[in-house]
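Dear H.,

Thanks for agreeing to be a second pair of eyes. The structure we're designing against is below in token form, covering all 333 positions.
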């Protein structure tokens, strides 16, 4: 303080709005904002100094508290980010990275699986699974849990546990398979106060019998290719039920398709077709069919659809989880 006053007396330059820490004899500290100016006589002689001061102790203490809280929250956020990153790695590791094709020696039929899984955030509410069930036989499952984040990821974990149990006994019965998942999830969620559900579709491929059985729990209808023509497979009430966890003890119906009539089938979650364009319209399932029907044939069908959706999107990104599972049917001599 004295240094400032001497500087003003020597140079005539004021000190404006300087924050000063003031220590008192009883060891407490206060803060003030002070301004000091030179005092001139009418003849221009520097006579002394005058100034004003405002006590800002509460303001400074509040600022220090906020800075301390910010540091604490920053450390907690870093720890949470690390935990979410680890959780994502574990969740992604649970997904099949390579899905083997299935074939039946007797019939010569083949089924090749392709997929794309892309979470919108650290933890995904969408997932898929392919369950080998013997030579030329497999179950496939695509699921979309309501919402995002940790809550959805917990439901995904619950469903994965139920899925493993169901696959061992009901893998060849899509309706009963979904019924078991629905009852198990309903039981786990019966004590919660919030509405939580998941849409899902389960199919069973039997290349020996040449059939595909399928059942849906409130999930978007799949897309199929028949003799090179791409179209939406209308399940309607024949194989359509409510989302998992919504209606306990619901009996899910199923439908059966001949594999010989199919070139391929694609099941997916709503994160793909609900992408919004610059005009606010959805990408939609019809545009998905167009992308599958046309485009660069050197590119995988799923890649064609995903690229078309990205190009359509206003933000050029997916704001929701993305999950697509496709099956190409063929025949070997």
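And this is the sequence the design step returned. I haven't edited it by hand at all.
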């Amino acid at each position: 303080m004295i240094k400032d006053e001497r500087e003003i007396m020597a140079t005539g330059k004021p000190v404006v709005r300087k924050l000063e820490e003031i220590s008192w004899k009883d060891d407490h500290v206060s803060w003030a904002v002070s301004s000091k100016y030179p005092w001139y006589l009418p003849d221009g002689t520097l006579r002394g100094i005058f100034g004003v001061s405002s006590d800002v102790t509460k303001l400074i203490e509040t600022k220090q508290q906020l800075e301390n809280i910010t540091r604490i929250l920053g450390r907690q956020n870093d720890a949470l980010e690390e935990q979410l990153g680890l959780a994502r790695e574990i969740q992604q590791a649970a997904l099949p990275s390579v899905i083997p094709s299935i074939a039946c020696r007797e019939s010569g039929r083949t089924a090749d699986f392709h997929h794309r899984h892309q979470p919108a955030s650290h933890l995904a509410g969408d997932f898929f699974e392919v369950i080998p069930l013997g030579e030329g036989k497999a179950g496939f499952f695509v699921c979309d849990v309501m919402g995002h984040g940790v809550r959805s990821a917990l439901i995904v974990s619950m469903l994965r546990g139920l899925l493993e149990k169901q696959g061992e006994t009901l893998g060849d019965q899509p309706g009963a398979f979904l019924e078991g998942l629905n009852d198990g999830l309903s039981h786990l969620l019966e004590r919660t106060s919030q509405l939580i559900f998941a849409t899902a579709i389960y199919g069973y491929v039997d290349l020996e019998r040449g059939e595909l059985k399928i059942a849906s729990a409130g999930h978007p209808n799949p897309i199929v290719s028949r003799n090179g023509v791409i179209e939406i497979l209308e399940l309607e009430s024949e194989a359509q039920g409510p989302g998992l966890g919504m209606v306990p003890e619901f009996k899910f119906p199923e439908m059966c398709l001949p594999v010989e009539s199919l070139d391929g089938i694609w099941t997916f979650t709503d994160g793909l077709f609900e992408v919004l364009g610059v005009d606010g319209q959805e990408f939609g399932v019809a545009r998905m069919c167009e992308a599958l029907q046309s485009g660069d044939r050197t590119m995988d069908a799923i890649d064609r659809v995903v690229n078309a959706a990205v190009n359509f999107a206003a933000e050029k990104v997916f704001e929701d989880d993305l999950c697509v599972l496709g099956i190409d049917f063929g025949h070997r001599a």
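Two observations from my side: Helices lie at 2-11, 57-94, 149-170, 174-189, 270-273, 284-293, 301-312. The mean pLDDT is 85.

Warmly,
E.
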